[in-house]
Amino acid sequence: MSKGLLGALGIGAVLALVLAAYLFFGFPEQTRNLGALSGDPVRGEYISKLAGCVACHTDPKAADGFLAGGLPIETPFGIFVGPNITPDTETGIGNWSLDDFAGAVINGRSPNGSHYYPVFPYASYGGMADQDLVDLWAYLQTVPARNTARKSNQLSFPFNVRLLMAPWKTLFLNSEPWSPNPDKSDDWNRGAYIVNALGHCGECHTPRGAFGNALNSRKLSGSLTGPGGEKVPSITAEDLTKAGWTTSLMAIGLKIGITPTGDFLGGSMGEVLSDSTSHYTDEDLAAVASYLFNE
What we know:
By secondary structure, the chain is mostly helical. It folds into two domains: 41-172, no CATH class; 186-292, Cytochrome Bc1 Complex, Chain D, domain 2. It is built from 13 helices and three strands; from the N terminus they run H-H-H-E-E-H-H-H-E-H-H-H-H-H-H-H. It is globular.
């Protein structure tokens, strides 16, 4: 083998190692300084409604199941089960610190450093405001602790390899706090924050690529890969208008579930309505509608 070929192979090997190091160690992470903030558990309970925590972390068929582990969520990559997030020290998050909690919610990392799968919507929650994080944490300390072991995810190879979430984050995760648009109204900005961060609407309503990455160039335009293979509709302003929605009807629909045709929202959106949007304040419902129709 010639020296030139050996040299080229050597350069190729080095480049491959550099690329691998970048993919596995270059993933973005945020650092938040939360120690000076005091949490309000009452406000944190409302944040939990905005963030939709109940739907994924509660099995309604289980006795004493509130936030103690959710129903299986079917996806194209396998079945995921939301974990116990009560303060139980054995099966929940009772041994976590505020920083552990923040790292999980905004960076998708467990206290032991392993990566969470993006079915946990940290790609959206990464925009959460510091005070909302602290208030949510304060609220979770007040819910009854339940000793409920987590049901295992059912994933086939290679999706069961958590380490692969590192290159996924490097390639697809935009991790930074949400910031308001100074050219928009306070109402619009509040709606944008709820839709894009706390409410994580795009996690279901934005189509995804082959690697489960959100196709943000088609943001909120609907998806064929919703929970359980459910078709999720577009909620862009254009398509909402075509379907007969207005800002006032949208606010009503998110509150009580009625559509412009007099039907009722069902499927997974029915769960979102029951556990989340029906609890929004009128001001937040109006803000969400304002954003959706002026996005």
